[in-house]
Model the fold of this input.
Amino acid sequence: MTAFAPDSLVLNRKLPLWYQVSQSLRASILGRTPLDPLRLPTEEQLAAHYGVSVLTMRQALKELEEEGLISRHRRRGTFIEPGARRGAPRRLLGSIDTIVAQQSGELTKLLGQGPAPVPGELADYFPGLAEIMSYTRLRSDSESGEPVNWAHNAVRPDIAARIDPAELEHRPMTKVLRDSVGVRISRVTDTVEARLADPATAELLRVPLLSPILHYTGVTYDEGGRVVDVARIHYRGDRFAFSVTVEPG
Done:
């Protein structure tokens, strides 16, 4: 069995290094396959991989330990928790790896895809376009099989033409756009608001009609300032919470 291999990370000096490392490692942990080993590399190996100090690496690991994703044992090493909690609150400081981490760790089923007229409420994001490529997916907890959220992505047709739909059942859209399609993402704007479950959401998420849900909108921009994807995700209110930390600029 090969050793656990976390994704690489391009560090942003405007954000705390420990935070960026913890979110990148978190995404790798939640995106692992069942065959991947549970033991992590040593602190020194991880620090070298990310190009940070051992002290920074320890702070990042402490964050993941507090979230319940890993456990650390003196002389034995650091291990991924087999029953790691997927629904713990997220700290959102604005890195792309955070967005990927939010979307990782569940079973995903592609419910539908195809061209569709630009929804009226999204027209301002796609000026000059008559159609977008629409993707609808349902995510479920990998252990219980319970629905966690359902997502709708509206993607520019020229970008969607390079997406392999099969990837969307294994990888988050943001990761597919960045790593597989080659979109140079400049930023993702997040909005989270409370709503009541409409009939479609209630049926997909198996919750009572008008029960509380969290509605997330993520707008992804490329380096040219174009909107390439608008994600609208409906989370079960009893499964997710979001915590925002503001760092002094």
Notes: The two ends are 44 Å apart (CA to CA). The chain has seven helices and ten strands. The helical segments are 17-30, 43-50, 54-67, 96-103, 157-160, 173-181, 199-205. Residues 191 and 217 are 5 Å apart (CA to CA).
